[in-house]
Amino acid sequence: MEGVIDAEMREVFTSLGGLDRCVTEFVRVTEQRIPERVFFRYSPELLSGGHTSSGVPVYTQLLGGSSKWMGVNAMRLGRLKPPGIDINFGCPSKTVNKREGGSVLLKEPQRVREIVEAVRDAVDPATPVTAKIRLGFSHMDDLEEIVEGVVEAGASELCIHARTKDMAYKPPAHWHEIKRVLNFTDKAKVPIIVNGDIWNADAANNALLESGAQSLMLGRGVLRTPDLAMQIKSAALSDKYTPLTWAQVLDVFITYLSRSTNQHPNFVGNRAKQWLGFLKVTFPQAESAFQRIKKLKEADEVIRTLDALRP
């Protein structure tokens, strides 16, 4: 969720309940030592014990293709005491892949193993090191080898987005394909997390059943439905829960934008339009809000216009 799930958004989403953990946007690792201030910029939660104000831990995510420099920077990050470190092998962005980051590394299972091993060896054994992958790059033939390598390299957990890189985000997600690697993970007691196309409680239940995974990772789903985690948990426990109304979501939305006014001048307007694009899938009223602000640029104008839409 690079360019989307920033600290302010994590703060808002975790305040709604249901989320057990967050992961930062990826910190790009190249052949240099990353200054501590960069880690704090991506994860200001590091200044408060690595948790949001709601008490939800935030893992810092690293992305890079060099096992040496991933290890060097993981060691530096580890000194800042993050609740955990996540490694991104799932990003399908062409720009990222051209720079030897994200899902392009799935073409080289041994390299994936070496990167996980380097990060694991660089930090305190008590610090969880997790990884996120896809089913493969252009095919799924290497999935077992990739998973076996990640597990043997010492990963604490493995999240699998149930598509290859070439599938990008085209439906459907192939949750059932994850089951064929459970023999590696179950034996090593490494939990599997399923990701992809989890839009509602029914999809969440089906993803768990078809994949055999123990947990879910939510991405774009929470942008469409901010309280999705609560809806899923309450459904699983048969608890009564009333989903947020559009009026409540609008309050959450405005709160987030108001907290983001310290960004660059166009940030609030651009982010508002981006998020409304997701929200309108669940809430038709978001389309009207988008039309009201689509030509606005100033943060104050955007927030004032949205505020006027409150019931």
Kindly describe this structure.
- The protein is α/β, with parallel strands linked by helices and 311 residues long.
- The chain has two domains: 7-236, Aldolase class I (TIM Barrel, Alpha-Beta Barrel); 246-307, Bacteriocin As-48, Chain A (Up-down Bundle).
- Helices cover 43% and strands 13% of the residues.
- It is built from 14 helices and seven strands.
- The protein has helices spanning 7-15, 36-42, 67-78, 94-98, 109-122, 143-152, 182-188, 201-211, 220-224, 228-236, 246-259, 267-279, 285-293, 299-307, and strands spanning 22-28, 58-63, 85-88, 129-136, 157-164, 192-195, 215-217.
- Strands 1-2-3-4-5-6-7 form a seven-stranded parallel sheet.
- Strand 5, helix 7 (182-188) and strand 6 (192-195) form a beta-alpha-beta unit.
Helical region count? 14
> What is the CATH level 1 assignment of the largest domain?
Alpha Beta
Radius of gyration: 19 Å
Q: Can you give the mean pLDDT?
A: 96
**CATH architecture descriptor name of the largest domain:** Alpha-Beta Barrel
Q: What is the subunit arrangement here?
A: single chain
Helix content: 40-55%
Beta-strand percentage range: 5-15%
